[in-house]
Every structure is written in C-alpha cells, then in structure tokens.
Amino acid sequence: MRLLITSFLTIYLLTLCHTRKSPAKKSTYSDRVVDGHSGQIQDFPYMVGLMYDYSALRAFCGGSIIAKHWVLTAGHCIVEKNSKTGKLQPLAFYILKTVTARGNTTFISGVAQDFVDHLVIKYLYHDRLTIVEGKVVENDVGLLQVKQGFDGLYERVINLEEQPHSLIQEGVQAGWGRIYPDIPVGADALRYHHVYILSREKCILAAMYS
Q1: How buried is 69 (Cβ within 10 angstroms: 0-12 exposed, 13-18 middle, 19+ buried)?
Q2: What is the pTM of this model?
Q3: Smaller CB count within 10 Å for the chain: N or C?
C-alpha cells in the first residue's frame, strides 16, 4: 500500500506541480481559477466533490478517483495550520468523521441526478506540506480513503500520466469551485477549464516571475 500511495504522489507531483490558467479567460486573482465552462459528469467521471457531511449542498473541495477506494486531493483540503502552535492539524470535520466524497453527479447538490456519497475513513497528507501566511507554498497534496468503493455509473478511475512533461502541454481542470472570484460560494453544476501543464522546472521558473 505504501508503494501504491508513493507512486500516485510521485506521478501527481511530476505532472501537476502548478497549473497555469489558459490566457483565453483571465481572472482578477492570479492564484485562483474561477468560472470556466459547463461540464457533465459523463465527461469527467473521475471527479468527486468533498462534502462536510451527507446534508451539505456545496463541495468545500474536489478530488480525483485514483483507485476503487482512494481519492487524490489537495493537502489544504485536509489540514490547516494551528495559529497558536504553528503545527498542522486536520480540519474539524475530519475529526468528526463526517466527510464524504460525492460522485456520480453533475450537480453537487444532487438535484436532477442521482449522486453517490462515500464516507472518508482515512486521510493522508504530505509530511512536508508547508503553509506560509495562510497559503500552501509546497507539497499541497493528500489522499483520502473511502469506505464504499467507487462503483457508480459515472465513477471511474482517472488515467494518470506516468512520465514527466518536458514541454508545455494543455490539460483540463474540473470541479465545483467558485464562479466569481469575490464570492466565496462554489458552483452547483460541474465546471471545467483548459490549463497549461508544465514540467517541474518550467513550473518553478514561471512561479518566480508570476
């Protein structure tokens, strides 16, 4: 299992590093991807929304199905920095054991389409995840294990890239994030963006001059 998790983390870090938004549509925030195009879960069956509990109507984060019981997500979707101790700690709803990964649906609230909730039973995050002034600056990656396997009609394991990118390529970023940069409310319907995927070297260089 450790080898499996390490392989997923290695692939994720090599291929994603930082995604740079396509210049086709600009956001007022350079570090946040917002709005996008309307999508369907049939086109992104690997996507799940992370919900505080079964009754939640909006996702607080997103993730990708990488195995029958595992979701790849961001580290900041799992932990936060304690303002007093300076140490990382799991978000409260993980302690309460109410977090679910909701899949099989275009609409995260579940309207007009059946959704499937999968209870999160274990979480892992990078042991060198670094948060500075409220922002994650390094190793923002985490894994979630769910109790119920991903067997829904529109629940599929994502095809992960196995080799690092040497040239700039275009990828797709999907989820239920904000539509407007100044309104902290996520979308109900699935959205997607075209983004640039950089090699780690080009990513670091781009971040230095952005």
Answers
A1: middle
A2: 0.79
A3: N
